Amino acid sequence: MEQLIFEGLHWLTLAVATYFSFIYFRDLGDITQALLSVERKNMLYAIRNENRLIAIALAGTAMAGLLHHWQGSGIGWIYYTLASVNVLMVCFVWGWLHIGLRNQQNSATFYPIAEADNWVRPEESVVVIDNNGEARAHPDYHIKRPHLAGTPEGLGGENVIITYCAMTHLGHGFKPEIDNQKLDLEVLAQHGNNLIMKDMGTGEPIQQVYGTRECDGRFSEKKMQEWPTYRMPYRAFKKAFPNGQVFINKIPKFSQNPFLWLVDTVVEQIFIWGLLPHDRTEKLLFETMDVEDDRLRRKEYVWGFNVGRDSVAYTEQFIRDNNNLINVTLGGRDIVVAYDPEFESVGIYYNNSGKPVSRANFWGDSDQGKLPRVETVKAGLYWCVWVNYFPETDLNRIGTVEIENTAAPATTTEPASIA
Predict the structure, then answer these.
(1) How many CB atoms lie within 10 A of CB 279?
(2) Which of 133, 212, 128 is nearest to 172 (CA)?
């Protein structure tokens, strides 16, 4: 009877360990979503309970091994096969997230333009944030792996970082603070083709496009403060900010750190393999979208933003076709949407003058005074991702639209009516 109990315990602990190893692998393996279906609720559970999943998986595997060697329980080749698979699944996911994607929230290196010229093409699009005379550019190619980039001294005296999701083609600035508490963010997953971060203090997931903790909800006032973020070609950044700094994510030399050289080289190749077709075709690498809206092609770049629960997206071509300037009302606020040909950049600004603007440039200078940038702008992200998270969005709005129920998703493929 005693031997039967040990036998049962061996198989039970091995089964439990294998189950939790697979759950961890499936829900947080990231690239596993190309092959396996992952529900959002399961992913959120895995994010909140990552350490618990790892502990159960490894402890169960170890306990089954102890019973096998101490009491001869189980079948050797089955145990060693499953134990190897369990350890491999756990180590792959943990290594991918915490070593391969190691974020640089407080450790990013920015280079002067003279150095960056060796790494960035003139026409390459860069994600820009600025404050108090300091400006930083983040090329998509370099920011894609760490996902987060910032420095301890902040940007112009403010604790501002860039968050980036290559699946969304979105770089967006935030102050990583909620309720005046600084957040220690970790990159954990993506769902709906958008980055999910983890607030390590509370263990709560944070969706990049919203900036709120999952437990607080999309429209919560408890959220990270968004920072005005925009795109422009690198050549235009150099013209606008000759003393600007550029984020370059260099792979360490083999002679300096062979392990990190190998990890970064492998991860870099995986990103290139997956992201080039993702950006250049209509096909999604991960089929985790909830909303389909064919008003635009899936991967068309849009400039989406919201004021409260009212949201809209613009294409660059639409802005340019309207003489580079659109006056619009959104969420009760007057907004100016402009394209500056000199700096090749879309700018979206608040207009507090009470009068329509007939002229506005890259710096926000207008015939009605200085215009501050709208902080919620998601610059140049894919239409399919924007509409997935803002399904009620209007498209290429002109004038004023009365929004009766902005929480309701769009049900047609035509733009909302214009008043």
Answers:
(1) 14
(2) 128
Token look-up 């360490």 returns 252
Distance CA 337, CA 326 (A): 5
User: How far apart are the two ends of the chain, measured CA to CA in Å?
Assistant: 80
Instruction: Tell me which residue has tokens 């437990």.
Output: 215
Residue 172 phi/psi, 5-degree rounding, is -145, 135
* Helix boundaries (H) for 139-257: 140-143, 234-240
Q: Under DSSP, is residue 191 helix (H, G, I), strand (E, B) or coil?
A: strand
List, for residues 3-28, the tens digit of each pLDDT value. Answer: 888 899 999 999 999 999 999 999 99
**The pLDDT of residue 415 is above 70:** no
What is the Cα–Cα distance from 356 to 387, expressed in whole angstroms? 28
Number of CB atoms found within 10 A of residue 149's CB = 25
Residue linked to tokens 């909620």: 178
List alpha helices for 29-75, DSSP H. 40-48, 50-71
- Give yes or no for a contact between 53 and 46, defined as CB atoms under 8 angstroms apart: yes
Q: Closest by alpha carbon to 139, among 243, 237, 248?
A: 248
- This prediction's pTM: 0.89
Nearest C-alpha neighbor of 70 from the set 162, 5, 157, 25: 5
Q: Where are the alpha helices (DSSP H) in 193-352?
A: 234-240, 258-280, 316-321
Reported for 351-355, long-range contacts at CB under 8 A and 24+ positions apart, including other chains, are: 351/327
Cβ 261 vs Cβ 377: under 8 Å: no
The region that residue 133 occupies, defined by phi over 0 for left and psi between -120 and 50 for alpha, beta otherwise, is left
Structure confidence by residue, pLDDT tens digits, 227-253: 999 999 999 999 999 999 999 999 999
Rounded to whole angstroms, the Cα distance separating 419 from 416 reads 9
Residue among 352, 353, 370 at smallest CA distance from 361: 370
DSSP state for residue 419 in the 8-state scheme: -
